[in-house]
Design a protein that fits this description.
The complex is a heterodimer of chains A (113) and B (116). Chain A is mainly beta and 113 residues long. Chain A contains no helices and 12 strands. The N and C termini of chain B lie far apart (37 Å). Chain B is mostly beta strands and 116 residues long. Classes of the chains: A mainly beta (113), B mainly beta (116).
Chain lengths: 113, 116
């Protein structure tokens, strides 16, 4: 069965610092991988996704993630944090042939001035 | 264009009552999904509709939960005899085709259900 582990339920960074949110997955077949962001009292918004091809994926708002098959990881990064990045971030996986998203528990990002 | 809309945004009910939650997907999207977001369980898949195919109900937690999708558009999630553990945010999503695995699922703002 697929599962997603997000290391760190809370991450705090200073404005302008590097953002690194970790995601590891378990899957018996090459998965499709997603990062979603949720702002307070809002639904989920797609940041980026990996399906096939280039393993470094660029998304909205300056975020990117790299699919590393050997490490079963899909960590999310942003070089310089903005106050507006404060939100909860969810990593999700879909195995080919399934339409269900399996989510990690989420990481709440705080950006300090 | 309009995104996924859900109603009501908040619902407070008493234990044992039935509730109906509504989802209007993005126009033209043939796939529709329901998820539940709760403090203890995180985000969980509930049910998936694709076109005229039989829905994938594998995530429904009990037979008190049911959903239908009328005319391939609007969907209603019904919870019968609500329990306190049903308190959660119920999120609806839709996608263009929902058959290839790569389609983006677009989420609505959710319905926050509180069972007293």
């Amino acid at each position: 069965a697929q599962s997603v582990t997000q290391l760190g339920s809370h991450v705090s960074v200073s404005e302008g610092a590097l953002v690194l949110l970790r995601c590891n997955y378990s899957s018996s077949v090459p998965p499709y991988l997603f990062w979603y962001v949720q702002y307070p009292n809002q639904g989920l918004q797609l940041l980026l996704k990996y399906t096939t091809g280039a393993t470094l994926v660029k998304g909205i708002n300056g975020f990117e993630a790299e699919f590393k098959k050997s490490e079963t990881s899909f960590h999310l990064t942003k070089p310089s944090a903005h106050m507006s990045d404060a939100a909860e971030y969810f990593c999700a996986v879909k195995e080919g042939g399934s339409e269900k998203l399996v989510f990690g528990k989420g990481t709440k990002l705080t950006v300090n001035p | 264009g309009a995104g996924v809309s859900q109603s009501p945004s908040n619902k407070v009910t008493e234990k044992g009552k039935d509730v109906e939650l509504r989802c209007d997907p993005i126009s033209g999207h043939t796939a529709l999904y329901w998820y539940r977001q709760s403090l203890g369980q995180g985000l969980e898949f509930l049910i998936y509709f694709q076109g005229n195919s039989a829905p994938d109900k594998s995530g429904l937690p009990s037979d008190r939960f049911s959903a239908e999708r009328t005319g391939g558009s609007v969907s209603t999630l019904t919870i019968q005899r609500t329990q306190q553990e049903d308190s959660a945010v119920y999120l609806c999503a839709s996608s263009l085709a929902g058959t290839s695995g790569i389609d983006t699922q677009y989420f609505g703002p959710g319905t926050r259900l509180t069972v007293l």
